[in-house]
Please model this.
Amino acid sequence: MTQPQQTSPDQLAFQQYRTLLFSVAYRLLGTAADAEDVVQDAWLKWSAADRSQVADPKAYLTRIVSNLAMERLRSTRHQRETYVGPWLPEPILTGPDTADGAALADSVSMALLVVLETLSPLERAVFVLKEVFAFSYAEIAEAVERSEAAVRQAAHRAREHVQARRPRFTADRARQRDITERFFAAATGGDINTLMELLSPDVTLWTDGGGKVRQALKPVVGLQTVAGWFAALGTATYQGIEPGQMQAELTCINGGPGVVFRGPDRVISTMTFDFDPEGRISAIHNVANPDKLHAVADGTRHELS
Model:
């Protein structure tokens, strides 16, 4: 009889931090596929390393992942700058633990990930490790292989940049879910009056088709325009799929309430929302690029510690 294969101490150590490593990599890269690749590369480096010299596996693995992610960010920058239409992060399904913690949910929201795209790779890494995972400046300096002074400067620049583009306010999670459900009902029912009530006056709709499917190539801005766009949603054929063939499901995406649209044989798009201090919808992120829907289509829910 074949004996069950034993898990080695090295594998156990890596598995202990795997969720953390994916959580760091995804926030740094904005795509689940790239984050998984970076975690796999980190495993290969970990397997080949002289672990007798590793005093702190968590710090060591975080350093590997941070540097691999920064390298990948630098190499993909041109690709993202020449992207067709708005570039949005790859959405992922998240569990209730992510949604229940306001700070944790915000740290993986589409809105914040879009802002993080405008930082340099170093600023992004420092911001994520400091603001999301509460690493000390000394730990971050070791992870990104910079001086502590350089890390403090990068953290200051990143924090100012993020706060200017995404002011923080206390989020009422139950209210956000309620608004999303009402918006969903109004959009599928073509109820433009309710849509006008739920949307912020300067609401912005971002649609990412990546040149693969037809989408607006510029943000759609303004209450009347966005409400009209959604009021027509339930009556129009979309990507060759008739309204009657389309299924929509309310679920948790990137730490907040979202919608997954499905056709008979595939996921068509996802929609996530950002809210203003009054609880109205201030931004809508619609991802329809099929290359960015694999993580949602496979149904995996990520716990992003």
